[in-house]
Design goal:
The protein is built from one helix and eight strands. With 153 residues, the chain is α+β, with helices and mostly antiparallel strands.
Length: 153
């Protein structure tokens, strides 16, 4: 009886060790965090600057996603570029748009910040370029890039 209990205990212990190792491996996916400094695109934005952080996030045990967060300061009102009422961030993989998402305006005392994020990509997809451009939320029309950055490894 004691030998049978010992065997069961050993099997259960091995199972727990293996299960915890698998779970730990899933939790420790290596991250490839990147920071993009967004700068004036073709002299269109004056004092404007921005940053984009691209990082891997863990949503649940098996789901790693790429998070793209964008923050821009000193952007002029989008109306100066035409019939636009906001800004959007656009992330590219070579030769195609990976995603675009609206930036929200945050009012400060004398200025405003535009910020937004998107977490809809699998962790193995990384943008090669990020831009901020004016857009119109109702029509979907967009203007030329105001801030841009190409990722260099």
């Amino acid at each position: 009886m004691l030998k049978k209990t010992a065997k069961i205990l050993i099997v259960c212990t091995l199972f727990l060790i293996i299960f915890n190792k698998v779970e730990a491996d899933q939790m420790s996916m290596p991250t490839k965090d990147s920071l993009y400094l967004l700068q004036d695109a073709k002299g269109k934005s004056g004092n404007s600057k921005g940053a984009a952080m691209v990082s891997d996030i863990h949503l649940n045990k098996k789901d790693w996603r790429t998070s793209i967060s964008v923050h821009a300061i000193h952007l002029p009102d989008p109306e100066i570029y035409g019939m636009f009422n906001g800004y959007e961030a656009v992330a590219y993989v070579p030769d195609e748009i990976l995603s675009s998402f609206p930036l929200q305006k945050i009012h400060l005392k004398k200025d405003q910040i535009w910020a937004g994020k998107n977490e809809d990509h699998s962790a193995d997809i990384r943008p090669s370029k990020i831009e901020i451009r004016p857009y119109h939320s109702s029509t979907g029309e967009y203007g030329p890039a105001v801030l841009t950055r190409i990722h260099r490894k």
